[in-house]
Amino acid sequence: MTHFARVVLCSCLLACGSAALHAHDIAVFPSTDGGGFRLLVRFGHPGDYQPALPAKLVTLDAIAPNGARRGLAGRLRPDGITLVAPPVTDLVGTGTWIFTAYYDNGFFLRTADGRSVNTTRADYPTTEPVTHNLKFGKALHVVGTAGPGFDRVVGHRLELVPKQDPFAVPPGRALEVL
User: Fold this and answer.
1) What's 65's DSSP letter?
2) Is 106 left (phi over 0), alpha (psi -120 to 50) or beta?
3) Quick check: helix, strand or coil at residue 7?
């Protein structure tokens, strides 16, 4: 398992409804940057990211190795198609950190002429189906040495939780999740 794969444990998608809609993900990319954390949030698919909008990011939380949770969504600013937080220097602690994101991509419907429109039924009252597209992302990042907390449940509607420390799984071995 590469370092990148370990850092980005999962980016989970909950798309309620039509498979015809584009099933984009929300992904959190933490890194350590000169005494602080640097966070990037991307929406879409690797290699084909779309602009991530700050207003649609409901939560972005840092969970310290001791379980303390801190909201960081208000620190993000668009930088091209990526949401970027300035280095966060007031988060301290060694061990396994968890970064979580909840992104509300809004309601989508398919019009009579086959277009997918990001709106509500109020604009197209006779259109079916309408979907509400929620995205959940979770990333692990180790400062110093990995430790407990990798299996912490963060409360997303759809969430992958590792059954063993992903930083201890040898390359080529499967990582079991709940």
Assistant:
1) T
2) left
3) helix
Q: Which of 23, 60, 53 is nearest to 39 (CA)?
A: 60
Q: Is the pLDDT of residue 6 over 80?
A: no
Provide the greatest CA pair distance for the chain: 56
Q: Residue 3 pLDDT > 80, yes or no?
A: no
Mind giving me the DSSP string for 94-162? SEEEEEEEEEEEEEEEE-TTS-EEES-TTTSTT---EEEEEEEEEEEEEESS--TTTT-----SS---B
Residue found by looking up tokens 């370092």 in the block = 3
Contact 127, 110 (CB under 8 A): yes
pLDDT average, residue stretch 14-31: 64
Q: Are 176 and 162 in contact (CB under 8 A)?
A: yes
Cis before 129? omega within 30: yes
What gap in Å lies between CA 104 and CA 132, rounded to an integer? 8
